[in-house]
Specification:
Blueprint (H helix, E strand, L loop, with lengths): L1 H27 L7 H17 L4 H24 L5 H20 L3 E3 L6 H6 L9 H21 L2 H11 L1 H6 L4 H27 L1 E3 L6 H16 L4 H24 L7 H35 L1
Antiparallel strand pairs: 1-2
Helix pairs in contact: 1-6, 1-9, 1-10, 1-11, 2-3, 2-4, 2-9, 3-4, 3-9, 6-11, 7-9, 10-11, 10-12
Amino acid sequence: MLYVLAGTLEQGLLFALMVMGVYLTFRVLNYADLTVDGSFTMGGAIAASIIFAGGNPWLATLAAICGGLLAGTITGLLHTVFKITPLLSGILTMTGLYSVNLRILGRANVPLLRADTVITRFNSWLPPDSIYGATLLGLLIVVLAVIALYLFLKTEVGLALQATGDNEQMIRAQGVDTNHMKLLGLAISNGMVAFSGALVAQNQQFADAGMGIGMIVAGLASVIIGEAIFGKRTLLQHIIAVVCGSVVYRAVLALVLRLGLAPTDFKLLTALIVVVALASPQVKGWLGKGKNNRKGETLDA
């Protein structure tokens, strides 16, 4: 049981960077970015290909982050320069990245068994036979990422980025170039997503062209779960909440797997979680309206 809990925490932390990237676009920038499915795979593909070729795993992970930054920038340029809608610009980049990722991998998947990765290097600094290396590394990276994102969003540029998502016309009237803010937000978001993909690929010891399918829905589900359970009263609390949402989401998947649900049903379960979370305010509104109508009928009688 302890091993299952450790594995769930490990997965939640490694995917938390992806969730933070989704949070940055969907909640902060108010931009429906579907590049995530492609940039997550790109991060894993770049890191795995370099490591497989004998490259340094830390440099491979850095290269993966740069690939994600580039992917986000392309989506931003499609939207800001060519005036393509946010949804379609993300779809176009994601579609193009599928072929790009196959080119990077050179095959359907790249194995990393017995390869030197950031996980194995971090484990070498721990006591022998330690099974918590990936968990500790994920926790360290996530803590640093949370602090960095919070401090960034508190800067003048970060506040302008938030204002772009809150009221684009207002902040543009204040002299802020909202196109630059969107480019910056999309680049950072997909850089974090690719970072997560690189870590996940090294932890599971392989990368394949389909590893990013459904990541945007999983990220959105984690964000919504975190907000619903842990709240979002302050900026720091909001960021921590989405990280916790990532862990809770992975715990839910582990639980239903132990209850007998087939792994092939995970995507359907994720979609249902998102539907329930997004539909709940509307359902509450209907219930509240129904109660008010019944009260009005009672008073009239």
